[in-house]
């Protein structure tokens, strides 16, 4: 790992980058790596991911030369300009899209060869024809004490009184909590979250962030979450990965050193945020 | 005042039709337009006699069988065509052909080729309905929400759970539309099939009364069957549809 050189962050708003595999983007690494106690849960190495533009028939490159790894129990935020391919990245990791060049290496798989994966989508995606409880029970597979577990989760989310309501009768905030509960219910090894707190009012969003930290503290999944909110990323993440405009690569990587148990302290978050933001001013308003 | 009572409005509308009929029968005084009471009287006697119920039963059995067959085959085919583009391309021209063949042609050819028997009769009825179900369910399958599909895939729900909890609930409104429009279509066609190639059923009796120019008989049999279809619509299909749509706001 190279040591940090703050002034060498490349401008990202350049637009047309050469797509030839030229010299690597200067990569800012501000961490002596996450504790290398164990094998990473996931190593991502995406050489190339593109889409065919349906209108013009051109091939559009979305992700290129993008690699990182994720430690067990680590909370990692992915930050980048909108439309740079963050959602695509999560979809590749979730196995929803296999049309790419590259490799995903999982360690510590379950018996059927797949990691247990929880996905919190940008929209809650609870099935409106099922009750909230049924929505969560649906993703559990023949586990014992199913009802008990769902009840405990709903209790923690403050949703227990709405368990038997159809999902579409809940407010958006409740649906988001429901989607979080569903992702946590399967006790995932990896939790993927795609801007899970966007379009919520500030107090609700904050409450859900604290809830996320709380549950992460208990069950210790690895979390990869996409956001465009640097303050949110600073508060939640152990490490922030910054993506460039499309084709997206990781331009820099910052470790946020707020201890897990202090992340509810706004002064600490604010100070760390100021430190990170000053370095990336202009890039991520 | 009446608008506030939908049921009252319906009954008033039905009654006014009856009064119109009675009035027309009085003013023409012909055996070709019997009054409602005469029709009701004949239907009642035929029902007690056993003949009416036998023929109603035969027709109803054909309707139910053909309906089930058409929904099953048409539904499966429609969903597959909606999801698999290649299959859609292959079968689309067949579908357009079937949609445009007159029901009578299908029925006549079926009887000529496969004989005047019960199986052929039911198949001929179903065949007239299948393309209609295919078109509706294909449309339904095309509108399946990709978001829910991704959810099912990423949580590894497996095909069985995905079908029952994710796909079918989205298709249910389309099934309901196909079912209701299908029942109306089928029961019009079943009479033609019976008229041409069966010796029981409402269609067969209509043919008999037609040869006798007995309008009272024709009306007694057709109205009895209409009544049964109305009961099925209001007592079975509509409550089922409401039950399925309970979750909607």
UniProtKB/TrEMBL annotation, chain A:
The keyword ATP-binding applies. GO terms for molecular function: ATP binding; ATP hydrolysis activity. Residues 1-29 are annotated as: Disordered. SUPFAM superfamilies: P-loop containing nucleoside triphosphate hydrolases. Residues 42-270 form the ABC transporter domain. InterPro entries: AAA+_ATPase (IPR003593), ABC_transporter-like_ATP-bd (IPR003439), ABC_transporter_ATP-bind (IPR050166), P-loop_NTPase (IPR027417). Gene3D superfamilies: P-loop containing nucleotide triphosphate hydrolases. Keywords: ATP-binding, Nucleotide-binding, Transport. It comes from the Bacteria. Residues 1-10 have a biased composition (Polar residues). The keyword Nucleotidyltransferase does not apply. PANTHER family: ALIPHATIC SULFONATES IMPORT ATP-BINDING PROTEIN SSUB 2, TAURINE IMPORT ATP-BINDING PROTEIN-RELATED. Belongs to the ABC transporter superfamily. This is ABC transporter ATP-binding protein. The lineage of its organism: Bacteria, Pseudomonadati, Pseudomonadota, Gammaproteobacteria, Chromatiales.
